[in-house]
User: Fold Branched-chain amino acid transport system substrate-binding protein from Paraburkholderia silvatlantica.
Amino acid sequence: MSLAATPRTDGACALAAPRRAWRQRLASGKLAAGLLIGALAAVSTLGASHSALAAGPLDVRIGFVSPLSGDYANYGRDLQNGVQLALDEANAQNLKIGEQTAHFELVPIDDRSDPRLGVQAAATLANQGVNAVVGHFNSGSAIPASRVYESAGIPMISPAATNPVITSQGFANTFMVIANDAQNAGIAGAWAVDVMKAKRVAIIDDRTAFGQGEADVFERAVREHGGNVVAREFAESVASDFGPQLAKIKAADADLLYFGGLAHQGAALAKQMKTRSMNAQFVGGGGVANTDFTQGAGAAAEGAMAWEYGRPLAQLPEGPRFEQAYKARFGTDVLAYAPFGYDAAWAAIHAMVNAKSANPEVYRSALKALAFDGVTGRIAFEPDGSRKNGASTLWQVKKGMWVPVTTRGG
Assistant:
């Protein structure tokens, strides 16, 4: 989901004063409260003043970073809609954080899947003192941005970025509500050998932190299960011509081709495989099993497979309700990761309510200990912040539609 060429970024340098943002907000809040209490004391008692203050709303700002323009904007808008739906529902419930009714506001920033812009977005949100961040979409942006949030002490909850590096850095403020590549691509690699009985496996990735990362895990799992990788190719994430790579793969007589990248490139790859009369089974990783692929690939989509994160919404208790609410609110169907965006937002909300505070220094421990039933299943975190028991589902295109075949994990 992202550019692999992640720039070296020091989170402390990205922020002018990363850890001062919250202290400044708290200090200014205390000063304002003191002035107001002083004014009220002229006409009332201190107790009455305190009650009046406690009754006021608590503004909670949830940062959000994703591509909202450019090639991946459809994924970004889908994610944003999922987060917004969660905040809308929370506001309608008049939830209380401590003694105050909370009002949740979304603060979105477009990073165009660019690591440099992702770091800038993280610095902006940290300096604004947001209460939590849901993001980023792509791993190449999420990895360097996570360093900024760690320096600022603000939790980042990833709804879509899946490279295991994100939660393996030893940070206290990094969480995932989605299975990581070690889970999803690892399952795919084992399945290719043990179930599909593939004898000659080929791999293409888009050289992003996401695509290359899951392709690496897939290859490792294939080899660990005794499989034979006959070709490992790559194309840049903006490429549309796979001729040179497919020529090598066809010459290697591969019987299964795994693609690490997103749907629009996967569709082009599937079409070009059909044009070259290749019989290898196409298998995509995360971000392929959606309508972008079936519409882009056309007739060549038939029979294609992909391992996608999570369980089918239709098989989850809250899935159908979420799909209906999403379409009613935004006038379109769920594309891919909106349910994870929804659950990421609710993870932050539940932690704040449980801790009775929107201050990250207070609610972080509640977030680490969190366990609740979300749209995508049971949400709970491992000690490193990755999701416990992440699930993966194998999908296949049948009569132009993605149909679930089997689910592993979860």
Observations:
- The first helix runs from residue 11 to 14.
- Residues 1-54 have pLDDT under 50 and may be disordered.
- The domain at 11-179+317-389 is CATH 3.40.50.2300 (Rossmann fold).
- The longest strand covers residues 100-110.
